[in-house]
Design brief:
This protein has about 150 residues and is an alpha+beta fold. The chain folds into two domains: about 30 residues; about 120 residues, Immunoglobulin-like. It is built from one helix and eight strands. The strands form two sheets. Strands 5-2-1-8 form a four-stranded antiparallel β-sheet, with no helix packed on it. Strands 4-3-6-7 form a four-stranded antiparallel β-sheet, with no helix packed on it. A hairpin with a 6-residue loop joins strand 3 and strand 4.
Length: about 150
């Protein structure tokens, strides 16, 4: 009985190690690395009345990864997934290309309570090798936000 428990515990440990370490090991093997910044910008523009979420390289970098980006996804709480397979904005004062997502017009101050941790959004970046890095955050309507993500 004691040996069975030890075998089960060892098997679970191996399984947990394999799941947790898989993406790091794969990224080290194929040379994938991702670094990006997510910004929520308020807008006065009639084109983007609720503002935008922009995903871009870290300041000083021209790209988000060591390999080309296959797609960038925004999972905004309470909204349908948005996906871009290429950058759709290039600022005049910077050579950095950005992925810009329009927020729904219903995303306004007071549309849901902020600071509860119950309304989590996510940005997921995938490179052409299939390496994925995601960043979760709480996005509060009307409150600008900037978060960074990097791996490995």
């Amino acid at each position: 009985m004691k040996i069975s428990r030890l075998l089960v515990a060892a098997a679970l440990l191996c399984l947990l190690h394999a799941c947790a370490g898989g993406s790091d090991a794969a990224s080290q093997l194929d040379g994938s690395a991702l670094r990006f910044v997510v910004n929520y910008f308020l807008s006065q523009s009639p084109i983007f009345p609720a503002g935008t979420v922009q995903v871009s390289p870290i300041a000083g970098d021209l790209t988000m990864g060591t390999k080309p980006i296959a797609k960038v996804e925004l999972f905004l709480f309470g909204s349908d997934k948005q996906e871009l397979t290429g950058p759709n904005f290039g600022p005049k004062d910077s050579p950095q290309l950005r992925y810009v997502f329009k927020l729904p017009e219903t995303f306004t101050s007071g549309s849901y309570p902020c600071g509860t941790g119950a309304f989590i959004s996510e940005v997921r970046v995938t490179d052409v090798a299939g390496f994925v890095l995601s960043k979760t955050f709480e996005l509060c309507p009307g409150t600008p936000l900037e978060v960074n993500a990097s791996a490995p």
